[in-house]
Amino acid sequence: MSVKPIKDLSKLCVHTITTKSWSIEEAGERYEAAGVKGISVWRQYLEGRNIAQAGERLSNHGLEVVSLVRGGFFPSVSSTERKKALDDNRKAIEEAAALGAPMIVLVCGADPGQSLATSRAQIQAGIEEVLPFAMEHGVKLAIEPLHPMYADTRSAVNTMEQANDMAEAIASEYVGIAADVYHLWWDPHLEKEIERCGKKGNLLAFHICDWNSPTVDLLNDRGLMGEGCINIKEIRSWVEEAGFSGFNEVEIFSDRLWAMDQQEFLDKIVKSYYDC
Amino acid sequence: MSVKPIKDLSKLCVHTITTKSWSIEEAGERYEAAGVKGISVWRQYLEGRNIAQAGERLSNHGLEVVSLVRGGFFPSVSSTERKKALDDNRKAIEEAAALGAPMIVLVCGADPGQSLATSRAQIQAGIEEVLPFAMEHGVKLAIEPLHPMYADTRSAVNTMEQANDMAEAIASEYVGIAADVYHLWWDPHLEKEIERCGKKGNLLAFHICDWNSPTVDLLNDRGLMGEGCINIKEIRSWVEEAGFSGFNEVEIFSDRLWAMDQQEFLDKIVKSYYDC
Fold first, then answer.
1. d(CA B20, CA A204)
2. How many structural domains compose chain A?
3. Is residue A7 part of a domain?
4. Which residues constitute the domain of residue A228?
5. ipTM entry
6. What is the pLDDT of residues B120-154, one digit of tens each?
7. Strands A222-223 and A103-107
8. What is the pLDDT of residues A190-200, one digit of tens each?
9. Is B211 on the interface with A (CB under 8 A)?
10. Which chain A residues are closer than 8 Å to B115 by Cβ?
11. What predicted TM-score, i.e. pTM, was given to this entire model?
12. Are A187 and B152 inside 8 Å of each other by CB?
């Protein structure tokens, strides 16, 4: 493993959900003050805002908008729901374009009422359906493989291999992959599949956090980098060797960390980031 | 998919942990009365018993002892702990032999303080170390691949493919695999890897339960068959096509179902079993 140490914050991006209680305006100010250089915006933080102005404000804080989070949730046993999902993804694409976000992270979805194979086919069909609209708006779509513990309702795409297969089948420069250490760290094929992803030009985003032992909640008990058992440095080395030079995006859902003073939490994020 | 419908209870096995509050004596009586034909015994139910007599009593209830649960937990950053684990596995082998259990299910273990690769190597070394002792006692060791959400502390073996790789590397007729739908249902390679497992003669056990949506606890929120989203019938068809003709073992950890009257729960198990 050869990995360059992190020497500055130029590639540090924080997801707005990470500092959950802050509005996008407060996040913008505080991220800038902390030296953060990128921001990934969850859609709920844009509610009631003029999105173009919100994007401009972030830019004035020296923040690059890395991604809009999240589109996806394509599968359903109901064709009405599948149509609604397509409409919502088109809306997300418009929001991303207005905000100045170059990509949308896709939490692809799954419906426990049908087989994973059917959900997977619906995901691919959904992406292909909205792809022309995404291209018109200059917005890329990043498939995020989710941990197998989310295969019932959140995503039927659960490994880097599956995401690679799907991105390669769609074969558009507007479709790629967001790799998140939380979802992927356990996979014995991870190094090989990250390399493949980079070679095909599909590696669009890299998300970091940690896996706590014990983990007490399936959704909201992610760890701050360094708290858990993920070798983030090793995975970052694979991602960088695969040609990725984008942001390291801190995406943490944690009831425990959200209950902290969020400025103190942000300071901890910055501090622990240097050891990633 | 071609699968024979379940017509009787001749292949129904229940794990003692499933009806958690019952002693092994009560479980024996009640399983017999319900028509259950197999029992897998968790070690804590043997505490304070003469194990050979406990086994005989189960036999008198017309119950075949399918497996002793559980051995494993080989990896540790501490060599003292690794040695303790070997001793405990030897003790489990003696217990299995005394009870009349033909195999031990291995929850292989993992230590979050070291890499998964290291834990995996320690698992294989641990199995190889106790294997001669297992052979002397006529007890097989069944590697159980665990869901990736348990990769931090419970098992660094998380897919059927990894379990196959390890069983084939060890290459002993006393080492095989216990396949549990709860851990494996999400895996796109499951059918292929079950087929491979059967072909190599490594498929020793088949465990059933269901995956609830939502799942509210990482450990103790398994569903009764039919409650969740796992296509048990399909996976059973793969297992049977792979040549497996052993018991279908019901292994459910559930705070919710344990809080029920356990006789009512057992009746539900029997009823839902016919639809598996």
1. 48
2. 1
3. no
4. 26-270
5. 0.97
6. 999 999 999 999 999 999 999 999 999 999 999 99
7. unpaired
8. 999 999 999 99
9. yes
10. 231
11. 0.97
12. no
